[in-house]
UniProtKB/TrEMBL annotation:
GO biological process, one term: NADPH regeneration
Residue intervals of the NAD(P) transhydrogenase alpha subunit C-terminal domain: 15-100
Annotated transmembrane regions: 12-29, 41-61, 67-91
Record protein name field: proton-translocating NAD(P)(+) transhydrogenase
UniProt cross-references to PANTHER family, sorted A to Z: NAD(P) TRANSHYDROGENASE, PROTON-TRANSLOCATING NAD(P)(+) TRANSHYDROGENASE
Keyword check for Signal: no
Protein keywords: Cell inner membrane, Cell membrane, Membrane, NAD, NADP, Translocase, Transmembrane, Transmembrane helix
Job description of the protein: The transhydrogenation between NADH and NADP is coupled to respiration and ATP hydrolysis and functions as a proton pump across the membrane.
Origin species: Seonamhaeicola aphaedonensis
A GO cellular-component term linked to this record: plasma membrane
Enzyme Commission identifier(s): 7.1.1.1
Subcellular location per the Swiss-Prot or TrEMBL entry: Cell inner membrane
């Protein structure tokens, strides 16, 4: 418990940024009309690219004998890639709905 309190007190600005980003995100999502919600959320899934880059960096800096870190990094990369591809697929499908048919 002391480690957690020490971490929070030493990184107080980061905690404030996370709290502020959470409130801003909730307010943004609440103000979006239902018609635009699905395309925007599927496009937001592309932010999983940050997870992919972070997982690759964790895997690069981990010890080659640390199989737990390597396997968790691999799972994070695979799930992040699935999320990115799924987000783009949903966005493409939504955009196809608005095209005029011949």
């Amino acid at each position: 418990m002391e480690n957690l309190i020490e971490f929070i007190s030493s990184n107080l600005q980061i905690v404030y940024i996370i709290i502020l980003a959470t409130f801003v995100g909730v307010e943004l999502i609440k103000s979006i009309p239902a018609v635009l919600h699905t395309p925007l959320m599927s496009g937001a899934n592309a932010l999983s690219g940050v997870v992919i880059v972070g997982a690759i960096l964790v895997m690069l800096h981990s010890d080659p004998t640390d199989y737990l870190a390597l396997s968790l990094g691999f799972v994070a990369v695979v799930l992040g890639i699935l999320n990115v591809v799924g987000g783009f697929a949903v966005t493409n499908r939504m955009l196809e709905m608005f095209k005029k048919k011949k």
